[in-house]
Specification:
The protein is an alpha/beta fold. The protein has 16 helices and 17 strands.
């Protein structure tokens, strides 16, 4: 089977924290072969039920601002639709027609025109920083500026306007709340700690903050930060979304274009590029998150088997004792028979039993090809084993694992 048949993300598990547009993101990931764990970290307050938005809309109609900044297409459309439902649609549109109306980008500009309005100006960069620069150049002292909030932080935007003398009114077009069912978030956190997730995607800063907050409530925050630091990739739709993660020292990746498509394309490059590739027993073996490519054939492997395989791959060609392999099996206790059972299932899953050799009374090793490039030997070359030999030369090896 060729890679284009099973997809560049086949064998990887990706967590999705989005509530809005989650179906679109999940479809893009699954189309490329990923297994998806959906754990919406937030829910959106329905606009028609949002008393805060209703009160804010009435206040703006009664006392029109000088400027309205529209930030998102879905937010602007939702605001107009909610006002129509409250019987305030004509009044809202009449107010927006009289003020200076700034649109952050082409999508919200399209919604403004669909409502029969015309924006005063829109930046080519889709950047709130450019909107801020324009307002400050115009002068905002003594002016009322309404900003359509969209659940994301606007670092420095509101503060800069207020410092320059503006009265800023936030319009909470949709607000984030904790999910009604926290179970999926807890399951995602547990999967991260068990290293059963390869990447987690974030499409809003509040979702990132919510996930970390829940980890802290469960006493898991340090472990979650460690997981992000070593094994789980944090991928954000843009730099603003990254802020809550970066404040905890978590490195993030973001596409150049802040869209779902480029985010998925970034994953398609990053995750396969991080997979371990080894020449074993005449086969090309690529170790992915929950599956292995053996000569480009995708072979799903159960979690216990993947734990053993990763332990062996840390020192390819060297013997790893049953006792050390047992340490890599979560919840296995002290029964080394669990290693033998998991190993048998692993060999069956790989479909090539000779990939893993049994060394009598010592343990197991990957049958690394004798003339493999030195880059595949991992830590073996620096071992202080007394006989200096490794598994690829036919000796018993050290018996020590990388976990020891």
């Amino acid at each position: 089977m060729q890679e284009n048949e099973h997809g560049p993300l086949a064998g990887f598990t990706v967590g999705v924290t989005a509530a809005r547009r989650a179906d679109e993101l999940i479809a893009l990931l699954e189309r490329r072969g990923a297994a998806v764990v959906h754990a919406p970290a937030l829910r959106i307050v329905q606009l028609a039920d949002d008393g805060e938005l209703l009160e804010g809309t009435r206040n703006l109609i009664e006392q029109a601002p000088d400027v309205v900044v529209a930030t998102t297409a879905i937010g602007f459309r939702g605001w107009v639709e909610a006002a129509e439902g409250w019987g305030l649609g004509d009044e809202l549109l009449g107010m927006l027609e009289r003020v200076e109306l700034l649109a952050r980008g082409p999508k919200v500009k399209g919604q403004i025109r669909a409502a029969g309005l015309t924006e005063t100006w829109s930046p080519s960069s889709e950047s709130m920083a450019e909107v801020l620069d324009r307002l400050l150049e115009e002068g905002v002292d003594g002016r009322r500026i309404a900003v359509q909030l969209h659940g994301e932080p606007l670092p420095g935007f509101v503060e800069s306007l207020r410092e320059a003398g503006a009265e800023v009114i936030g319009v909470p077009v949709y607000r984030w709340m904790p999910p009604e069912d926290i179970g999926p978030v807890d399951r995602l956190l547990d999967a991260m700690l068990a290293r059963q997730v390869d990447a987690v995607t974030f499409t809003s800063a509040p979702a990132a903050a919510s996930l970390l907050s829940r980890a802290e409530e469960r006493g898991q925050l340090p472990a979650v930060v460690e997981a992000f630091g070593h094994d789980v990739l944090a991928v954000c739709v843009g730099p603003v979304t990254s802020l809550p993660l970066q404040s905890h020292g978590i490195d993030t990746l973001a596409p150049e274009r802040f869209r779902l498509g480029p985010l998925v394309q970034l994953l398609c490059r990053e995750l396969p590029g991080r997979a371990r590739v080894l020449p074993i027993a005449g086969h090309r073996v690529e170790i992915r998150g929950h599956a292995v490519l053996v000569d480009e054939e995708l072979r799903p492997v159960p979690p216990a088997g993947m734990a053993l395989l990763r332990a062996l791959a840390r020192r390819p060609g060297w013997v790893v004792s049953r006792a050390d392999l047992l340490k890599s099996l979560p919840g296995a206790g002290k029964d080394e028979h669990a290693v033998e059972t998991a190993m048998a299932r692993l060999r069956t899953s790989l479909g090539a039993p000779k990939l893993i050799q049994t060394v009598v009374k010592r343990g197991y090793r990957l049958a690394l090809d004798p003339h493999a490039d030195s880059k595949y030997t991992g830590e073996a070359g620096s071992s202080d084993d007394s006989d200096g030999s490794n598994g690829s030369n036919g000796a018993d090896g050290t018996g020590d694992s990388a976990d020891a």
